[in-house]
Amino acid sequence: MSWVSGTQAGLQGLLNVTVDSLAEYCGLTGDQQENSVFLERQLGLLQRNPSQSAINSEFCAKYLPALVDAYNVQDAAFSIPMRMLNVVAYLPYFARFLLTTRTSVCKTQARRMATASSTPADPAYLVEMCQFLSTLLALQGANSVSEEDKQALLPKLREWSRKYQRQQITRCLKQLEDDPETTVMADGLKQHCEKFLNECGFDGCGKSGTSKLLQCSRCKTAVYCDRDHQKKSWPFHKATCFPAVF
Ligand SMILES: [Zn+2]
Ligand SMILES: [Zn+2]
């Protein structure tokens, strides 16, 4: 579809990034097919949008299970649902989804990259794929990847790393190689992503331990040691608190 063929209303819609427009371009709603050109355009706009984290959070609360379903039915290592998942992979919503549903997205992504018969012509796609797998390896652990896929993936990653010299590719390779320094970094990322799920959200409180903490019943991605800390945190928490469908 070319830019000029869009109607005025269509173009206006393209400039207005909402959770529903993102879902539409990911092919999750409506009769329309997924649209990678429009999705990239909106993701570009979203990066400069001051409400970026609120929009991504609301998107997750509403569409994350549908997005993962759409991801699961793909065969390709790079797909539109993968592209969108990579955008939201650092949010507590995604961490909670992985923990509560026990879905090994990491295993799936590694398998697809290990068994792909061709490499994307555009290195930007490779970087996206490797960045996503790197985040998944941090969140779900390299053990979730089968030994067979690991052995198939390592030479590919070594070649891409040499050829493109991109840190996302090299980091992914080092994680699979169990490089100690990279493992420490990955553990730090996991802690950061899961912090909101098991540590009181009141700034500076630091109380943790899932059993005694109160969970925000709306988003289920924030916990508090008591009602007082929950109340005091609300003015800050409300920007990313949305009713989660999962
Ligand atoms: Zn507290
Ligand atoms: Zn909440």
Automatic annotation (TrEMBL):
InterPro entries hit by this protein: Znf_MYND
A UniProt-annotated Pfam family: zf-MYND
Source superkingdom: Eukaryota
Segments passing through the bilayer: none
MF-aspect GO terms: zinc ion binding
Segments forming a coiled coil: none
Record bears the keyword Metal-binding: yes
SUPFAM superfamilies: HIT/MYND zinc finger-like (SSF144232)
Alphabetic keyword roster: Metal-binding, Zinc, Zinc-finger
Domain MYND-type intervals: 202-241
The protein's name in its UniProt record: MYND-type domain-containing protein
Source organism of the structure: Suillus placidus
